[in-house]
Amino acid sequence: MKKTRNIASLIICAMLVTILAACGNGDKNNEASSSAPASAVSSPESSPESSPESSPEVAPVDLGGRTIQIAQNWDGTPTDDTAAGKARLDKIAELEKLYNVKIKYISLPSEEINEKFVTTTLAGEPFADIIRIEYTKALPAALNGQLTPMSEFASPTSDINNANKLLVKAPPIAGVEYGFDGVGNNAVMMHYNRDLFKKLGLPDPHELYNNGEWTWDKFLEIAKAATKDTDNDGKIDVWGFSGWAAKAARDFAASNGAKIADDATGTEGLTNPATIEALEFVNKLYNVDNVVKIKTGKKSNWEEQDTFKDGDVAMFITADWQMWELPFDFGLVPIPMGPKGSKDYTYALEGHGLFIPKGVKNPDVVFHIYEEMQNIPAYEEYPSQNYLEERYKHEEDIQMLREHIVGTGLLTLDAAYPDYPWYTAVQEIIDNNASVTATVEKYKQQAQASMDSINKK
Q1: Contacts 24+ apart (CB under 8 A), 195-203
Q2: Could you report the per-residue pLDDT of 362-400, keeping only the tens digit for each?
Q3: Cα 27–31–33 angle (5° rounding)?
Q4: 267-268 and 352-355: which strand pairing?
Q5: What is this structure's pTM?
């Protein structure tokens, strides 16, 4: 306790020094370090305009030459081949000297990271101080007490609890904040084939969204208008939609405000009226209005997620990282809003984040060092600028993504529960045109038992 009070006093002094020295500092965002694949991390060559607003300093603690290890499924070690990389290396060298530490990135396949995380944390000796794992793996870890809650390492003055210029919080897991990640502009959204929209004279989704008309009904109306035989050979050759049915249903459920499995309350979400509504809508796309292109011969096949690449599909749900080297012009909007939805949530968030395992020594200092590692000059106008401009050729799409989609993911963790019957239920509904209400009722008890098997350990 005495040590904590001393550090607090030093923090106050350091803050006063920081305020006096900060005159004239800019307010730009730092280079992105997002949760997208490594290729999404920016590496611009332009000169910095200013530094992000620094988080309040923490009095340096001598960690005795300790190595702080950061584990993820790609090598995060900065290189000196870009201005941003050089700045990050300089920052790491500065922090290593200040705290008497070594900072090391560990690159391992995701499954190996998950396995080592569990075994070493259970043994009380986590193999890394900061670890990137999927949210579905973080849930059982959190429930088993293997993750350090953010309240134990992020101070009230941390950037993550204030400006979020350096790091952002991951969504709460089981009602508690644990994770964090870099500032970025990555998401899942409804993409559309601009060439087909122009050829078929379909309405502009951007205008529909801006006018408050981008709803499930309008989406279905356009999908039906786009599904047609354009060469009069008696066969449909252009389709309104394509995708992996289970993923599409999950995203439409999120855009209707529904969690398929509610990790905060521990209750199954199959029978949530908003989930049922989403399943009914997706079933209508596939089996009533028949606006979905099926390339593999099986409606629920996961490989259908790539069918849109053929260029004969008007609309499709994908993440930004999937939009690469396509033979047609495309645009994006949020997934249309469901009857029970809002603009707060537009897609189902899965993905991964950074966590501090339970048992890591000095987690508050470790986190502060990592947060300060992000405090380098801004080499882009906004996070992920270069990455996004490589993929999207229309400024209005990037603006739509940044202003209306980023940050609207609804954390969806049904895959974290063993044998949760989401895929089975969707398969029966889509492949067999089974009754939605009968199917969710059929699997309701299995879904709840699956959640209870983790929640009640």
Answers
A1: 195/311, 195/328, 195/329, 196/226, 196/238, 196/311, 196/312, 196/313, 196/314, 196/328, 197/314, 197/331, 200/225, 200/226, 200/228, 200/238, 200/314, 202/226, 202/314
A2: 999 999 999 999 999 999 999 999 999 999 999 999 999
A3: 130
A4: unpaired
A5: 0.85
Give the model confidence (pLDDT) of 107-116 as tens digits. Answer: 999 999 999 9
Please count the residues of the chain: 457
Q: What residue has token string 């350096």?
A: 166
What would the two tokens of residue 104 be? 């090391």
Nearest CA-CA partner of 123 in 454, 356, 359: 359
Q: How is residue 291 written in tokens?
A: 């606006």
The DSSP secondary-structure symbol of 145 reads: T
Q: Residue 60 — pLDDT band, cuts 50, 70, 90? A: confident
**Cα separations in angstroms, 147 against 104, 113, 169, 345:** 21, 14, 15, 26
pLDDT digits (tens, 9 = 90+) for 64-102: 999 999 999 999 999 999 999 999 999 999 999 999 999
pLDDT of residue 20: 31
Side chain identity at residue 336, one-letter code: P
Give the Å distances, CA to CA, from 442 to 9, 95, 228. 60, 57, 36
**Per-residue model confidence as pLDDT tens digits over 14-54:** 333 333 333 333 333 333 333 333 333 333 333 333 344 44
Neighbours of 79 (CB within 10 A): 12
| Exposure class string for 1-21: b at 16+ Cβ within 10 A, else e | eeeeeebeeebeeeeeeeeee
Residues 450, 456, 457, CA angle at the centre, nearest 5°?
A: 100
The number of beta carbons lying within 10 Å of the beta carbon of residue 376 is 24
SS3 319: strand
- Residue bearing tokens 């944390």: 121
Question: What whole-number distance in Å separates Cα of residue 387 and Cα of residue 369?
Answer: 26
What does the alpha-carbon distance between residue 126 and residue 117 come to, in Å, rounded to a whole number? 6
* H-assigned helices in 27-134: 83-99, 110-122
3-class state of residue 423 by DSSP? helix
Give which of 73, 61, 138 is closest to 105, Cα–Cα: 73
Q: In which order are the strands placed within the sheet that holds 188-193?
A: 239-242, 313-319, 188-193, 330-333
Q: Give the H or E element holding residue 381.
A: none
Q: Could you tell me the domains of the chain?
A: 25-184+351-395 (3.40.190.10), 188-350+408-455 (3.40.190.10)
Question: Side chain identity at 344, as an amino acid letter?
Answer: D
Predicted pLDDT at 455: 83
